[in-house]
Input
Amino acid sequence: MRANVYFFWFISAYAFLADVVYTIWNLFFAGTTNGGGGGRVEPIGTVCLLLTAVMALFIGFYVNRSRLGQGGVLPEDRPDASIDDGDPELGFFSPYSWWPILLAASAALGFLGFVIGIWVAFIGGAIAIVALVGWVYEYYRGFFAR
Amino acid sequence: MLQTTSAPAVNRPNSVAVGTIVWLGSEVMFFAGLFAIYFTLKTSLPAVWASSVEHLNVPYALTNTIVLVLSSFTCQFGVFAAERLQPQSTGWKPSEWGMVRWFFVTYAMGAVFVTGQVFEYANLVSEGIAINSSAYGSAFYLTTGFHALHVTGGLIAFLLTIGRAFAVRTFGHREATTAIVVSYYWHFVDVVWIALFVVIYVLK
Output
C-alpha cells in the first residue's frame, strides 16, 4: 500500500510540475504563431493539468488514510505471508445481474428521444427509475431479503 | 523449523469506498473540462463577461451556497449515526438522531439548493441571459447546470440509501458503507460548488 500511495503522489507532483512549466512556457516563450499562447496564460492546459494533480493527490490521500487505518501490513505486501492469509472477505460481488442492461436500454431511449422526439425520452425515464430501483435493491428483496 | 501460521489480521480497505474515491477522481477531471471551458471563454471575451456578470445576484447565491455547505455537515452526522449502525432516531436530541433523519434533513437542504438554482435561472433568463444568448450564458449554464444535475443525482442517492435502511431488518456494515460512499459523493459535489462559487460569483 505504501508503494501505491507513492505512485499517486508522484503522478500528482509530475502533473503539478508540468502545469508550472506549461504556464511559464505560455507566458514567456510561446509565440502567437503555431497556436502558441502569445504571452498569456492558456487556461485549458493550466486548469486541466492543475486538476490532474488534484485528482492524483485526492486518490493518494485517501489510499494513504486507508493504509494508516488498516493497522498493519496487508498480506499481499508481506514477503512472509501465505496465500490463504490473503483470503478474507473482500466484499460483496454480485454474481450476475440483468438490471444494468435495462438501465443502459433506458439511457439509450433517453438519447434516442433527443433525436426522434422528446416523448421517447420520457419512456426511457420511466424505465430508468424501474431499472435503478431494481438494481439498488436487487439483494434486498425476495430470496435475498434480510 | 516452524513458520508462523498466518499474518496478523488487518482492516482491509473497503473496495466500495476506494472505488468511489477513484470514480470521484474521474469526476474531478469532468469538472476540469468545464472549468477550462469557462476560463477559455472568459479570457477570449472579457467584454461579454463584464456586461453579463452584473446580472448575478451574489447575496442570493451566497445564501444558497451556505445551505449546501451546511448540508454537508448534516450528511456527516448521518454518517456518524450509520457508523454506530443506528438507522432510526432514539430520541429528540440531535445526538440521538439516526441516519435516516439526518439524511432527510440533508435531502431537504439539497432540495432547497436545487430549487434556489431553478429560481436563479428563471431570474437570469428573464434578464436576457440564456444558454443560447451568449458565450457567458453557455459557460454559466453548462458549469452550474452540470453541478445541479450532480446534486439532483445525490438527492436520488440519499433516497435510495434511506430506502435500504428501511429494507433491512438489521442495519449492518453493508448499509453503513452505502451511507459512507454517498456522503463522499455529497462532500465532493459540495467542494465543487465552492470552487464554482468562487470562480463565477467572487472572481466574476
